[in-house]
Amino acid sequence: MKLLVAVKQVAALDEDFEIRADGRDVEADFLIRDVNEWDDYSLEEALKIKEAAASPVEVVAVSVGPEDADEALRKCLAKGADRAIRVWDEAIEGSDSIAIARVLAAVARKESPQMLFAGVQSSDHAFASTGVATAAFLDWPHAAVVANLTYTPGGDTAVFRRELEGGVLHEMQIECPAVLTIQLGINTPRYASLRSIKQAAAKPIEVLSLQDLGIAAPDVGESGSLSRVRRMYIPDKGRAEMIEGDVEEQAARLAQIIKDAIGGAA
Amino acid sequence: MARDPKHDILFQPLKIGPKVLRNRFYQVPHCIGAGSDRPGFQAAHRSLKAEGGWAGINTEYCSIHPESDDTHRLSARIWDAGDVRNLRAMTDHIHKYGALAGVELWYGSSHAPNMESRATPRGPSQYASEFETLTYCKEMDLDDIAMVQQYYVDAALRSRDAGFDIVYVYGAHSYLPLQFLSPYYNKRRDGYGGSLENRARFWVETLEKVRKAVGHDCAIATRFAVDTLYGQSGVEAERDGVKFAAMADPLVDLWDIDVGDIAEWGEDAGPSRFYLQGHQVPWTRIIKQVVKKPVLGVGRFTDPEKMTEIVTKGFADIIGAARPSISDPWLPKKIEEGRYDDIRVCIGCNVCISRWEIGGPPMICTQNATAGEEYRRGWHPEKFPKKTSDDSILVVGAGPAGSESARVLMERGYTVHLYDTAQKIGGHVNSIVTLPGLGEWGYHRDYRELQINKLVKKNRQSQVALGQKPMTAAAALAYGAEKIVIATGSAWNTDGTNCLTHDPIPGADASKADQLTPEQVLEGKKPIGKRVVILNADTYFMAPSLAEKLAVAGHDVTIVTGVHLANYMHFTLEYPNMMRRLHELHIKEIQNAFCSRIEAGRLEVYDIWGEGSKRSYRGPGVLPRDPNKTQRWLDFDSLLLVTGRHSNDALHRELKDSKAKWAENGVKDVYLIGDAEAPRLIADATFSGHRLAREIEEANAQFPKPYRREVAVWGVSHMPEGSTQVEYQT
Ligand SMILES: Cc1cc2nc3c(=O)[nH]c(=O)nc-3n(C[C@H](O)[C@H](O)[C@H](O)COP(=O)(O)O)c2cc1C
Asked: Which of B402, B426, B422, B406 is nearest to B414 (CA)?
């Protein structure tokens, strides 16, 4: 019995940053890398199932990315994942979430887990589509934004809850294998001890190429994507003014601002 | 990050007499426990601030003559060539970093008890000091006046020779010049008393003489408490204050303005419990309006926004700071570089001041564990020696000691896991901040929390694990750390154990419904009845703080105290307003009384001086005094036990007991820091964590390395040409 957990090494902006020369991303030097917050929860959910299981469960973490994604995978290994797989090929550069999903689906086919967990979204790009797109490529049932899960390993179905508006909960059942996207707060992610961090540093990470997965290069990267970033930019700052003076002066200034804003009309 | 251009105004240079301040940040005179006897400490502490961007940096009050000797408290002195030599170390070091050095020339009159020199202080009229109540001065005649003014001149000349750029005539905190000005002290009927012109004469003449002596070489400053806060019986800002300022303006190059006196100088160095940043501005701005010379004001300025407002609105030209400069000697540099969230904000606890009030041990700071350790331990607050091993470290407990230790270890490059059961870094500070007036103490936690969160981003192997299960010895050993630091804090005693009897009090038991520890009060889960009795054997803030909190919430509060209630708050200058607060809330205090036993709803109280005063031998098993028969019952609905604390050291004991398993688990050493080692001030807990982090490579790092001492050296004379022979008059 196997659970596959997709994780992503996301990027956060440093205090100061610059946009790349081509205007389509932030200059890599200004990015701070970390594991996507949602993925901490999906890994924890998988580890909880493994620990509660009567029969052996294998938790496999997978990430699509260059070598720096190893950091995310090592974190998973330190917390208790049994294996880690990283898929990379130069051709994957520039992929959107659909192209990434194509790769993840290929890994899922290869590993044939009972369930694939992904985060609801990644904190950097926030498309919230990788998980569900993977399900589409696999033609597996899927559910998004799962806030509670009951699953007995080996079972054909899982029961989960989703939060709807106004505090209403939706309880549903799904056939396995399935893809679930996991919401923050579903559990309390654990921390790795120093010992397991050190041990994880020595564990192997399986690196797969496109060839290993039988994916043709044009099916990933920009050519394999359905969307394309035109530009990334910082919008002009809104103007704010601190209105000072006594109440009358403040009122007069405010009236003036409104007049200016509505133009000649007044 | 670059600084916000709106703060540029704080970086504009300003001319003061013959000198130029490079910006508007100025360390006003404040004691550190160095004076002129610990020149290394003095030079290092002050020049670190010059490096950190301050434009002007002063000594503490600096006595001009043995007639003004503050022993047991520790001032600087510029009495002779020996002092000049020692103070030169400070000015030289400050000058290396392009800042100006100032000296605050001080004559104390009756406020200085002259316990070392045994000289007789002189004053405007004879009075017994309200601060040193056994010290009287001699009323000066005209010869005395001329003589003391010459002391100022001679001291000013020595100051110039010692390399000082700014020379003060110190007339704040009710020292001599202000004593002449204030009718509270000055009862004279000659040309130096009576009218404002007469009362101002001593000060004005002294400024004239000092200016004539050194005014070409040095900027002349005067520190003026423009309001002694007694109403008409002292100096009021809008009466004598503005008039004196206008009169003396031509004679000064810099006005250093504050308020208050010496006996209650917490009105100047206002604790955060009672005063916000900028609390003196209403007075400072009054003087700024009447003088032409640059004005500096104080008021625990830590926030660049507030500072900018002070300067742009014309309330003052220069930002004076004592405590903020102790808490963060690099405050100006951090503002200049736009590193606003790296500022270690002064929490206003006044523990720095407590050491001066106690009588001169080196100053300490709750926020900045390196304060006072610059020279003797070589600690720089912003620079850390690189780690010397790849040992990883587990710190159990994220309170003041643990979080400080983790921060410094991370700064040094170590991989650190900081572990706590609480959801937030800060330990007991998280609950202390909910006590009345102590919200700003939370900056201690905030600084560490923010820095640690930045540091774990730099080293992904490091981690902050909050909300965890209590750590066990087995889990700690198996954790995989080479070094384990235990910082599990302390707790209030639940059984009444206290500093007076060293034993539990019969019947004391905080697991009962009507008895509570301070933690239980702060937690807010246990109901508290209308009539509250606080049984106190602690001399700091917990009992009065809880009394205030509960009285405000409508309880009738009585404090039974076997120790001087809030005694340490004398030293932090919180005492006067704390007492006013207890008084206005109708909190009753039963002093010199403690408790012999507790029953449901009542405690037995006795007078601690109730036994016989005559001591005689009466055989074994019999007290050598007549027994205490003052016991009586006092009823309560809820009893608060503020009797003492104990370390939470069980984990450490267990780890020590399993020493045999250390090696097989790869554990090299285990340490105990902060309250878990022994309950203490937050400042000292923080220090202990910092100290361990700097010395963790030492063979026995649990125990501090020796520090460099500055003491008189046998065979070396203080005076350049002096002798050290034992010689008697013949
Ligand atoms: C530890 C300490 C010692 C002080 N010693 C002196 C002193 O020697 N002379 C003096 O004029 N003021 C002294 N002060 C008062 C400060 O100069 C200042 O007026 C007061 O602390 C208010 O400024 P702040 O709010 O920036 O701390 C001292 C203050 C502190 C904190």
From this structure: B406
